[in-house]
Amino acid sequence: MSTAEKPAVPEKPALEGLETKWQRQWEASGTYKFDRAKTRDEIYAIDTPPPTVSGSLHIGHVFSYTHTDVIARFQRMRGKDVFYPMGWDDNGLPTERRVQNYYGVRCDPSLAYDPNFQPPAEPPKQPISISRPNFVELCLRLTREDEKAFEHLWRYLGLSVDWSMTYATIDKRSQRASQTGFLHLLKKNLAYQLEAPTLWDVDFRTAVAQAELEDREREGAYHRLRFDRADADSGAAVEIETTRPELLPACVALVAHPDDERYKPLFGKDVLTPLFRSRVPVRAHALADPEKGSGIAMICTFGDITDVTWWRELSLPVRAVIQPNGTLKPLTWGDAGWESQDAAAAQKAYNEIAGQSTNKARTRIVELLREAGALIGEPRPIMHNVKFFEKGDRPLEIVTSRQWFIKTIEFRPALIERGRQLQWHPEYMRVRYENWVNGLNGDWCISRQRFFGVPFPVWYPLNKDGGIEYARPIVPDQSRLPIDPSVDVPDGFTSAQRGQPGGFAGDPDIMDTWATSSMTPQIAGGWGEDDDLFTRVFPMDLRPQAHDIIRTWLFSTVLRSHLEHNSLPWLHAAISGFVTDPDRKKMSKSKGNVVTPFALLEEHGSDGVRYWAASGRPGGDTVFDPSQMRVGRRLAIKLLNASKFVLAKPEPLGPITEIADRGMLTRLADVVDLATTSLASYDYTPAMEKSESFFWFFCDDYLELVKARRYGDHGEAAAGSANSAMLLALDTLLRVFAPFLPFVTEEVWSWWKSGSVHRAPWPVAREVLGPIGGGDPHAADVLMEGCRVLGEVRKRKSEEKKPLRTPVVSATIRAPQQNLDLLDEVWRDVSASGCFQASPRKEVSETFESVYELGEPEPKQRTPA
RNA sequence: GGGCGGUUAGCUCAGCGGUAGAGCACCGGCUUUACACGCCGGCUGUCACAGGUUCGAAUCCUGUACCGCCCACCA
To answer: How does DSSP classify residue A553?
Structure first.
């Protein structure tokens, strides 16, 4: 299938419509179909990031997914069978939130399923409460719509995905993999359940993981409070500073540094909390910072993570006041755990804040403290960082609840080692991973008190009194997975026994979205259900992703693979940066600076947008820049037109003998080598850049230089040499550009070749140099000298404001001997291209000060051949 | 507080030990038989700053400043 009989070169080639035309053709021909008959070493497997379908796609997605596609296309042309599925992340809170707003509904798990429920056409002001199954149905309905829109965009962008291999993080396969993985961990005692203080979002009313935290700067204030000594004989008081005085009723101790001379005498002694008159000990702990506040802090259950550490390490009692909804719980002072030297006064004070949110309670308790004389001075306003759930609106609290955890902390050294085995692109991103692993302060909490997600495949027996026996979970046989314990019944029970004493109860929680996403290599690779496929693709070759989710997605995937398979999930991680606006801020929906990607693809062409994306180096943030897209579009158009010119004579017409042709191919071979090296090392940017600059040289200098000869001005052999050389160059260039500009290269390829350029072999220098018997650096020097002189002539004509076809009547070329010698060898082409009417005088000179005398341009052109 | 990137022409960036580069923008030309969605030419810089290594530094080392980001037990 060398060349077609007659090339179908359009009269006026254009980019418009190529996206639609070729995405259809690729689908019809199965161009990107994965061939599962191949063995692991013949396969290049990609663990695609499943985009969150409930969010909208923005230009950042187009940017980073293009990078992956460039690599995929390169590897495919290198002969690998590319395993490139697409996933959709439809699991979790973002979907829930979108469904709530889109349909105007709220999930109420206590309601029964209504098979006839249909959401109203317009979301009502007052949300409708619906059952969990109804809610999940709406989630699935909406995500299906979103997924269609995403796929449409991806196809239009030209991602070379095998679209028969999509998965969604909520689908049956994902649920099965997710639940299987969980049960394995449970069996190996690597997953466990614990009632413990947990980071808690009071609006979503769910536990969240450390990886989902973010700091936000908020106003706060230092309040200096006086604690009296409990021993009657001592009047000396202790002063502490706190930003959260409303937690005073939850105070269980004071703490200072063991070496702090100021407080040493107090260690082991008791003090009384103001207002509530609870007796609490003064303790020593190395985490207390003598420089902060007054050097002594109050420990509450629980104000922050440090409180949890102190509480655990000092074996302090629990005195919790924050409820799951963020308000202070009602309680009776004087009861066990709530001892007070003056229960009546404590109760009176507490009643002022009970049931209130932390903010309101804070305001009120400050007034009470002031009245009681326990507030020293006035609160001093400060700005400080407060921990938030990244999707939340109010500061996180710490609430004690029963949650599932995956053991993480004990594997830190092994995980660091895994990170070192992984090849990072760019290399410095490894540091972020190590920072994260080293900073972990607890096991991974994977349970969420939400509705749309993968349920825990666990039931619990109920004892005679109907109490849940958490210590004896009932798990299903693997063959039953996936299951929903709120619907399915454990073996040996009947559904009538649900919730009955002596019966069973399903675990009500769902898994954190990352608990499922951390298994994308297993899900996409068919782990547990198509093990033949799995062994062919796992461990995968590439995980492409952005740097903001190293601590979540990348980390958790490495962890799960380490625990499940004792291996890395992939060999390479390619980390892309962000798209920023011109002020260097990340473009995001919340900042209101996003641009709809589809409009950009239509305006600049997918190839144009991909060109801009490919200019962003791995790991580097890139400015959103439509002018670069225009440059890419121009490049694509230039490819069409140059190809049309080259393909005017689509058959090689003879051996490549002319020196300019040999020089051009020699330079091209260098470009091929460089592009290959750069792409093979995941550094696609130089490949694009060098190919592009060579191509413009090819068009504007080389083609102009040999044009006349190619038209036959110097005989058939000379014309044939040019023709054969430019055909070979075009063939090579189309393949080099194919990963970056898949549409235009495929279009041109179709004019004269059969099959897809994207299945053509990646070019190698040997093939380019074969017809000229190897590289010829001298020929390249000759070519460049010819171009240099041509440049001088053009400059002269431009300065004289004359057309380029203006003849050079006479010339004196001054240059070093070496240059003059080179020029001699290519003079015929230079003379024709520069319109020299006579041979120039040549003078040896160390400087280049040639003189060109211009004549009058010929009024009439010769007719085309 | 610790760390990672970055700082080169108005803009976006390449160069990473040997006389400062590209594209865009801007200005001036040119209907040249592939392309006016084009072509030719021009203008533009104490390579953030300060030291050091070197025959020679944008390039290597040390420090400083600023920008962006990551991490941290921020009472």
So the answer is: I
| pLDDT at residue A250 in the model | 96
Enter the ipTM: 0.96
Measure, in angstroms, how far nucleotide B59 C1' is from residue A686 CA.
19
Alpha helix positions (H), A681-776: 684-697, 704-710, 716-737, 742-752, 765-769
At position A472, the amino acid (one-letter code) is R
Burial A491-518 (b: 16+ CB within 10 A, else e): eebeeebbeeeebbbbbebbbbbbbbbb
Q: What residue type is assigned to position A550 of the chain?
A: I
* Closest-approach nucleotide to residue A798, Cα vs C1': B41
Per-residue model confidence (pLDDT) at position A58: 86
The pLDDT of residue A110 is 81
Task: Show the DSSP H helices in A80-171 as ranges.
Answer: 93-103, 132-157
Residue stretches of chain A with pLDDT short of 70: 1-7, 232-235, 584, 586-595, 858-865
| Distance B20 C1' – A845 CA (angstroms) | 25
β-strand partners of A842: A813
Strands A579-580 and A622-623 come out as: parallel
Average pLDDT, chain A: 93
Written as six digits, the tokens of A595 are 């641009």
Q: Which of A761, A805, A643, A657 is nearest to A717 (CA)?
A: A657
* Alpha-carbon distance values, A403 to A187, A217, A302, A310 (Å): 17, 29, 17, 21
Note the pLDDT of residue A232.
Answer: 65
Cα–Cα distances (Å) from A122 to A134, A137, A587, in that order, read: 17, 18, 30
pLDDT at A595: 67
Structure tokens at A779: 């020929």
In A 755-814, which Cβ lie closer than 7 Å to strand B? 791, 794-795, 797-799, 801-805
Residue A207's DSSP bridge partners are: A200
| Cα→Cα distances A850→A105, A781, A843, A846, Å | 81, 19, 9, 12
DSSP state of A478: G
Q: Taking the CA of residue A29 as centre, how many other CA atoms within 13 Å lie in the half-sphere pointing to its CB?
A: 15
Here the contacts of A472-479 (C-beta below 8 Å, separation 24 or greater) are A473/A186, A473/A193, A473/A507, A474/A504, A475/A183, A475/A186, A478/A180, A478/A183
Taking CB atoms within 8 Å and a gap of at least 24, the contacts of A425-429 are: A425/A572, A425/A573, A425/A574, A425/A575, A425/A618, A425/A619, A425/A681, A425/A682, A425/A683, A426/A575, A426/A617, A426/A618, A426/A619, A428/A619, A429/A547, A429/A550, A429/A573, A429/A575, A429/A619
**Distance from CA(A620) to C1'(B35), angstroms, rounded:** 34
Chain B bases closer than 7 angstroms to a protein Cβ? 2-5, 11-15, 22-25, 28-35, 37-42, 67-75
